[in-house]
Amino acid sequence: MDTDERSAMGTIITRMKLAQHLYYPASSFTRSVAMTLTIQEVTRAEIPETIEFAMRARAEVFPMLDASVLPADLAAFEQVYLSGERGKFLIARHDGKIIAAVGYLPFNHRFPQLDYIGRDTVEIVRLYVMPQFRGDGLASRLCEALWAHAEAGGIEVLYLHTHPFLPGAIRFWEKQGFSVTDVETDPVWNTTHMECVPGERQRNPEGK
């Protein structure tokens, strides 16, 4: 690794350390908020607002990524999440504002070590809850609503990946019934691959 590579690596790691303090801060979620909260599928009219929310979330959780580049799934939001046979995107609103989101899209088999050929597999993406609404089960409620859509659609495997530098992320997904299938050993991301079979899912609130 030359000097420039070391410098770039140091910048990425510094930004990851910053992300550790942003991902799961304390919550002030209250019962009154829960009573006025709605979870729904995104409509065509809500696409611009939803993309803006998702990009703000991405910039907060992954400050090391280029915020000026719109990811492919967001650039083709309607085709991927609304018109696509295996796409779904849910949002939670409070007082008319989006406060949380999660979605799934067809898995694209880009990781050669994962074998989902012949199995109807979707990838869970873009789970994010605004900091002031964390800590009282909103993320789990949002995921439960998404799982219901997956089961109704006959999805065979729910796949996702996360990273150890996001505190609490792996444990959260284990609570939702996911198990680790592979961990990459690169020095930056340590990408952790996880899966869940909807019909066999056993939610584990204790994360054990």
From TrEMBL:
PROSITE patterns: GNAT. The keyword Acyltransferase applies. InterPro entries: Acyl_CoA_acyltransferase, Bact_Acetyltransf, GNAT_dom. CDD domains: NAT_SF. Residues 37-199 form the N-acetyltransferase domain. One of its GO terms (molecular function) is acyltransferase activity, transferring groups other than amino-acyl groups. Pfam families: Acetyltransf_1. Keywords: Acyltransferase, Transferase. This is Acetyltransferase. It comes from Pseudomonas syringae pv. primulae.
